[in-house]
Amino acid sequence: MSKLLIVGTVAFDAIQTPFGKTDKILGGAATYIGLSAANFNVNSGIVSVVGGDFPQEYLDMLNDKKVDTTGIEIVKEGKTFFWSGKYHNDMNTRDTLATELNVLENFNPVVPENFKDAGIVMLGNLHPLVQNAVLEQMAEKPKLVVLDTMNFWMDIAMPELKAVIKKVDVITINDEEARQLSGEYSLLVAAEKIQAMGPKYVVIKKGEHGALLFHKDQVFFAPALPLEEVYDPTGAGDTFAGGFSGYLAKTDDVSFANMKNALIHGSNLASFCVEKFGTERMQNVTETEINERLLSFRNLTKYEMEIPSKK
């Protein structure tokens, strides 16, 4: 089993969807990643920053899940990063209502000594300079570095982003971001161009339509489980990333064959995330529920087919 170092935001969110709205609730990329990875009982730790307004009970909850929080800096006189958004009826598009960087604006990440030898590093969605600063603190080259990013950083920090992309093994982005990063519409061509930038593996997330994994000339597709109701898609991509990286840390196998399994586990956990607002579902999901849904995934994709032989 490899140690898993998680880098990203620990934050407050306020969310509106067609199913309702919330006041400030627990959110942030690193929070979702950590809660998801915790289902594999890996030795994981978060590097992030919060303000003095961040409740101790949230940190206690993460620690109870065996997610080390010593790398979460607390700026007592500051306020925690806050994001507010409103989702449209299709649940695929949203409007950002507020973004308050607060303590995140001057965040200088510090990797705890006991995680500088982490075998797997999951770089959640943050400024590329912060992601790079974490990699530079590692005592040795990790077995696998996974990077998540978004079009915002492509718009304002493309040179810095490309510098980090050179150093990572896996990049996870959605289809729109893959097209923007590569300048190509075809996802096959886009993945090829992105691999040429440095990553050996490219994961392209397609929301409710699943995810694609590319490595050289190999492609694997993991579906998303059809759900009757989606209450809140916030954090689904981060939950996917946590399941993906958590499974790889648990199995200590970063081969393409095992990444196929990791993709399924990531999709499986993401399907729980959207069933409640915020992190509520991920805080309470059980091992039995996870395993039962894995069986649903297997049944969704399992089939027998005879290939006609030449006559």
Mind telling me the C-alpha Rg? 19 Å
- Give the SSE string: EEEEHEHEEEEEHEHHEHHEEEHHHH
The total count of strands amounts to 15
Percentage of β-strand residues: 15-25%
Helix count equals 11
**Tertiary shape:** globular
Main sheet attributes: strand count, strand direction, barrel closure: 10 strands, mixed
Helix-strand makeup class: alpha/beta
Overall residue-averaged pLDDT value: 93
Detailed description of the structure:
With 311 residues, this protein is α/β, with parallel strands linked by helices. It is 36% helix and 23% strand. The protein has eleven helices and 15 strands. It has helices spanning 29-37, 56-64, 128-136, 151-156, 158-165, 175-182, 187-196, 236-251, 256-273, 280-284, 287-301; strands spanning 4-7, 11-17, 20-21, 25-27, 44-51, 67-68, 72-75, 82-87, 94-100, 120-123, 144-148, 170-174, 201-205, 211-215, 218-222. Strand 10 (120-123), helix 3 (128-136) and strand 11 form a beta-alpha-beta unit. Helix 3 (128-136) packs parallel to helix 5, helix 6 packs across helix 7 (187-196) and helix 9 packs across helix 11. The protein is globular, with a radius of gyration of 19 Å. The mean pLDDT is 93.
Brief summary of the model shown:
This protein is an alpha/beta fold. It is 36% helix and 23% strand.
Q: Which keywords apply here?
A:
single chain, 311 residues, alpha/beta, ten-stranded mixed β-sheet, 11 helices, globular
Secondary-structure blueprint:
Layout: E1 4-7, E2 11-17, E3 20-21, E4 25-27, H1 29-37, E5 44-51, H2 56-64, E6 67-68, E7 72-75, E8 82-87, E9 94-100, E10 120-123, H3 128-136, E11 144-148, H4 151-156, H5 158-165, E12 170-174, H6 175-182, H7 187-196, E13 201-205, E14 211-215, E15 218-222, H8 236-251, H9 256-273, H10 280-284, H11 287-301
Parallel strand pairs: 1-5, 1-10, 2-8, 5-6, 5-7, 10-11, 11-12, 12-13
Antiparallel strand pairs: 2-3, 2-4, 8-9, 13-14, 14-15
Helix pairs in contact: 1-8, 3-5, 6-7, 8-9, 9-11
